[in-house]
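# step 3/5: fold
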Amino acid sequence: MGRGLSVWFLCLSALLLGFLGAQVSPLAYLLAGILAPLPVLVAGWRSGEWAALALALAVVAAILVSHPAFETLWNNLGFFNLLLMGVILSFLQARGVWAPQAIILTVVVLNILALLVFMGQALYLGMTPQALLAEKTAEIMETVRRVMGDSAGGSPGPLIPGVAADEVQSLLQRLLPGLLVTNMALVAWLNVVLSRQVALLLGWDQLEPPLFRWEAPEWMIFVLLAAGSLLLVPVSGARLVGLNLIMVVAVFYFCQGVAVVAAWLHRLRVPRPFRLIGYPLLFLNPVFFLIITLGLMDLWLDFRRLHQPKDA
């Protein structure tokens, strides 16, 4: 019990330090936007899902007490959303839901809540959803510039060389739904992977099945085929829906591709330090797209022999 309480307070300190650091440092802002669910998941591994919930509530309470205003809640919805992600994943893992299904369920729940909040905000501000979406897109572009280190005082350079800022913003606005779902799925997957590694390194639990046995649900291939079909429809709205769907489905096949690579590294007994160096490289272009292709090919070629008869 004592060690579990110590881990809980360490996770609380990490979250509060990350939140404070995000207010002053673009790098800390980026890390907090990716790894905020990790301490919640670690607390859940060590002490159970109710400890994860208590941790998230304690962080929210500390933030609101430090600056008791409605704007504090509103301005930090993104951070609180990541804490909720950790809580949902902790409750699902405590009930034996395997990681792929837990991530999909978590992403679905969080996106439904995000849509409700978005529509409520548009109604409260008296804006149309399209106008609010354009405003959110501009905020995201400004955040990206800040993280990339553009000075606020000078004239900001283009995010994509050779492409006008208005064109980038227009494209981002059309792809924003898919990008948000994709980002949420990747963040959930990354934190699940990291939390399992922490639990394994500290010997807290026997995790079965191992995460390198990840498989995207079989029905997802039909979503991919439907999305590809929409790209052939001579209607811009249909093509836009298809493109957003492809982005979302691609994330899950990327995770499956990483699982294939992880299985090969495990079979070859590659030392852990080399794996830690190699995994981040999988996110780089064009390796990222090759891993997506690998995950898609695994559906038919079964690189890991997951579907071989046991007595074969």
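# step 4/5: annotate
The two ends are 46 Å apart (CA to CA).
# step 5/5: archive (pending)
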